[in-house]
Amino acid sequence: QVQVEESGGGVVQPGGSLRLSCACSGSIFSIAAMSWYRQAPEKPRELVATIISGGKTNYADAVKGRFTITRNNAKNTVALQMNSLKVEDTGVYYCDIRRKGEENDYWGQGTQVIVSS
Predict the structure, then answer these.
(1) pLDDT-based confidence at 28, cuts 50/70/90?
(2) How far is Cα 25 from Cα 2, in angstroms, rounded to an integer?
(3) Which of 12, 31, 32, 82 counts the highest number of beta carbons within 10 A?
(4) What is the pLDDT at residue 53?
(5) CA–CA distance, 18 with 83 (Å, rounded to integer)
(6) Would you say 69 and 36 are in contact if contact means Cβ atoms under 8 Å apart?
(7) Is 75 left (phi over 0), alpha (psi -120 to 50) or beta?
């Protein structure tokens, strides 16, 4: 079993910054990818950023240039630095872990981000 826990969410004004963190524990084995998703009210969950084996990163167009995903393999953590936040960034942010050789994903329970003046 893999446990995933997000933290760092909160309320911030437009233009502000937040740093989200995700901690992974349990039967981790080898991680293929670590991702951040978000879900705005009444909208489908969408991919925000991914970091995969080898360090390659991918970002949604909506956050490119503003968000940065990083990982610490030794500590089994992944962070999302969010700068220049916009109202449309509001949502619950989820951490997703994909292990090598598996189709199953492991999810945290989310951390809420509210961007409002």
Answers:
(1) confident
(2) 6
(3) 82
(4) 82
(5) 7
(6) yes
(7) alpha
Average pLDDT over residues 96-113: 94
For residue 59 the two structure tokens come to: 């970002």
Judge contact between 63 and 18, C-beta under 8 A.
Answer: no
DSSP codes, 46-103: EEEEEEETTS-EEE-TTTTTTEEEEEETTTTEEEEEE-S--GGG-EEEEEEEEETT--
SS3 call for 89: helix
- Judged by phi (left if over 0) then psi (alpha if -120 to 50, else beta), residue 26 lies in left
Confidence of residue 107 (pLDDT cuts 50, 70, 90): very high
Tokens encoding 50: 């991914």
Q: Enter the tokens of residue 55.
A: 């360090």
Mean pLDDT of the region 54-64: 96
pLDDT of residue 1: 81
CA distance 117 to 115: 7
> CA-to-CA distance for 83 and 71, rounded, in angstroms?
17
Given a cut of 90, is residue 9 above it in pLDDT?
Answer: yes
Distance CA(72)–CA(105), nearest Å, equals 19
